[in-house]
Amino acid sequence: MLTMNLRKAGLTAATALVLSLTATACGGGGESGSDGDKINIGIKFDQPGLGLKTQDGEYTGFDVDVAKYIAKELGYDEKDIVWKQAPSAERENMIANGDVKFIVATYTINDERKKRVDFAGPYFLAHQDLLVRADDNTVRSEDDLDDSSMKLCSVTGSTSAQNVKKDFAPKANLIKYGGYSECLTGLENKAVDALTTDDSILAGYAAQKEHQGKFKLAGLSLSDEPYGIGLKKGDTELRKKINDALEKMVEDGSWEKAAKKHFGPAGYEYEPAPEITEK
């Protein structure tokens, strides 16, 4: 009798353990990128004017405002947002693994990325350019870049880095770092000749108080970079909801208000809100 009771107790414990593990594996019923009443959203933490985590722990920028607007339309208050840092090279993995519900992080829509994730939008159109030191006049055109002595800096996993080697400067010495702030330090210390990425990102860095007067944009429109909202492959329902939110943001004037707020002080002449094509 004692043996039977012990066996029963053992089975009960084992059953409870299996149920517990099953619940954990299923996320306790929560959706991918969500935790109960919270929503995980990927942004950049180091891009002034777009996605920046400030020293006091606040989050600011155009992408942040877009993300907040979308979250609100999905039924989440601002206090329910959990911001996740989304480095360029990790964005597809974060979406595929369910670490975030969606990503708003200067995320250019292209065919290679669409093999792994889906996009809503675009919600912004940028162009690749270069940031150089204010006293440097050596870069006047695209032709000046394709030289082995030219040290260009960009970020691992970014379309800007891919464009350099594939399109306009295959001979250049491309140096890749994990974040744009590292490239900026290299530019200031003359370890690199130029930082290349989207003009929207470069304008944000140049406008920072500590950088004013040190750098300037070269004024080269090297590519079109349509920013999209990255989300899980095949989630057509979420894509429609986000597209609806983006259209509403443009129609009610919130898009223009956010653009003026974050790009105006930098003197950056941004393009009007683009037509949504990812449907």
Automatic annotation (TrEMBL):
List residues of the Solute-binding protein family 3/N-terminal domain.
Answer: 38-266
Q: Which SMART domains match?
A: PBPb
Identify the SUPFAM superfamilies for this entry: Periplasmic binding protein-like II
Q: Which domain of life is it from?
A: Bacteria
Q: Which keywords does this Swiss-Prot/TrEMBL entry list?
A: Signal, Transport
Q: Which residues form the signal peptide?
A: 1-25
Write down the InterPro entries for this protein, in alphabetical order: Bact_solute-bind_prot3 (IPR051455), SBP_3_CS (IPR018313), Solute-binding_3/MltF_N (IPR001638)
Q: Which Pfam families match?
A: SBP_bac_3 (PF00497)
| Family statement | Belongs to the bacterial solute-binding protein 3 family.
| Protein name (Swiss-Prot/TrEMBL) | Glutamate ABC transporter substrate-binding protein
In its UniProt entry, the species of origin is given as Streptomyces glaucosporus
Lineage in the entry?
Bacteria, Bacillati, Actinomycetota, Actinomycetes, Kitasatosporales
